[in-house]
Design goal:
Number of helices: 5
Shape: globular
Distance between the termini: 40 Å
Strand content: 15-25%
Structural class: alpha/beta
Largest sheet: 5 strands, parallel
Radius of gyration: 17 Å
């Protein structure tokens, strides 16, 4: 089995990694750890000499993500799992779909930020997009403290 674990620098992706580490996977499974470096929107950069600053920001982000991948791979190897690590650039929603296709994974694991309403609309939802468009099954690991909704008609 080939499993793609999508990580960012949030506690939500840490929960996803912990979940994968605790699970028993079939013998010979490989875990692909992927971080996606999002480009800095040009509109947020100052108008004076943005290229050197953009380059520095991108390099710092890539270095942090490489460290995130290395830590995740180490934790997975300690659990006896075979791993591969990657950092790519782009929109995380599309990059995860492309990686799932290219790697021919059986399962894609993402953490959920648990945003709803306007926050979800404004910030987008990587997990929602991936669930809808991935070429494989998707596991969304939610926070243990996510608010629970009452079933229609109240609790029974």
């Amino acid at each position: 089995m080939k499993i793609l674990v999508a990580l960012d620098e949030s506690p939500h992706s840490e929960r996803a990694l912990e979940f994968v580490t605790r699970m028993r996977w079939p013998a010979g499974s490989t875990i692909v750890v992927l971080c996606v470096a999002q480009p800095v929107p040009a509109g947020l950069m100052p108008t004076y000499e943005p290229q050197p600053l953009l380059h520095e920001i991108a390099e710092a982000q890539a270095a942090r993500l490489q460290e995130t991948v290395a830590r995740a791979r180490s934790a997975l190897r300690e659990s006896g799992l075979s791993t591969v690590g990657r950092v790519c650039a782009g929109d995380p929603r599309e990059a995860l779909i492309e990686a799932a296709e290219a790697e021919r994974v059986d399962l894609l694991v993402v953490g959920s930020h648990g945003r709803a309403g306007l926050a979800k609309l404004m910030l987008g939802s990587v997990s929602s997009h991936v669930v809808t468009h991935a070429p494989c099954s998707v596991l969304v690991v939610k926070s243990p403290h996510a608010p629970r909704r009452e079933p229609p008609g109240g609790a029974s």
